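Researcher: Quick sanity check before group meeting.
Model: Go ahead. Protein one:
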Amino acid sequence: MRKIVMSLDKVKEEITKLKGQNIKMQVNKGRKKIVQYEGVVEDIYKSVFVVRVINENMEKLSYSFSDVLCGDVKIAIKK
């Protein structure tokens, strides 16, 4: 059983602080597929947050706060 380090409210609070900042993301898509993105946290909603990925297509991706809590999505501030 995993030990819970953060609560869902704490995750929401930390991601809210990142709104508008450049970030690096590492997303576990399953089956040993890990994708890395660079982008900007654009919008924050009740259950999800939206990241505008910086690439040729300028696509938007959304993730739930529980994805971050479970460790499927890892976020770091881009320096």
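Researcher: Fine. The other one?
Model: Protein two, sequence then structure:
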Amino acid sequence: MNKYELVVVLSAQIEDDQRAAALEKVQNYVTRYGGVIENVDDWGKKRLAYEIQKQKEAFYYVVNFEAAPDVPAKAEDRIRLMESVLRFLIVKKEA
């Protein structure tokens, strides 16, 4: 099992309950394929360096998890389709 870090940037135009549901959905995609979530860090609302879909601010979340090497690609395929996710990135942490 490898350690990964997932950074998710969610739209600031959605309501709090929708944002919580979107974050829960992202976590479910990780656990559905056998990943184990270690920590979820809420960075809050931040100003974007450049506009994305005509938005200047977004909510940032960092999800640390352990998973088999094939899990990140499977989770990425699902997260990519979510409308409330502006950007995301999964990186493997060094041991």
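Researcher: One line on it for the slide.
Model: Helices lie at 16-32, 71-79.
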